[in-house]
Amino acid sequence: MNRAQRLALLVAAVNLALALAFPPHDYFSLQRGNIPTFDGFYFALRQAPNRVVNADFLTLEIIVILINAAIAWLLLRNTPARARKLPGGNRLQRRILVLIALNLIVILLFPPFENFASISKAVLPSFEGFYFVFGDNSQRQLVASILYIEVTLVLINGGLLWLLFKDKSREELNAEQVRALAARVRAAQRE
Is pLDDT at 89 greater than 50 in this prediction? Predict the structure, then answer.
């Protein structure tokens, strides 16, 4: 583990501590029939009346922090000397990892909300739009199922792109090259 990777782990640990110290809360209002609406981030040890931790959003925060830490770990690893000599290297894969991390951050900063008046218990509820998470969302509820779908699709698409643009090193042989090498070895053994 190099110095940059240790720093990335430290930043991830600080982010996790902040996310757990100030979890997202929902507010249960008697006027709205005890329907939870997103209320903001409060200190974990503070007992706020009619507020409960939004576990779905907190789970997504923790997942995104851990995924971004893993991406930083991959981006900051030392590259072998032979990989630096190859044209192109893993530049495209690194860009894809940065793009995935940025997408996950934007998804959490602008999650899907729905108005409390239109809340239903449907599997995929309708949503009002994407709003800044630190804005006034007292009349809205987070739509966790859509947020989970967004995060999952970003991760799947990013993983597929990362695999698609993987550089083939000189050490990796395709099937035909393996057959040709095996034939040469057999011929050398016969002689």
Answer: no
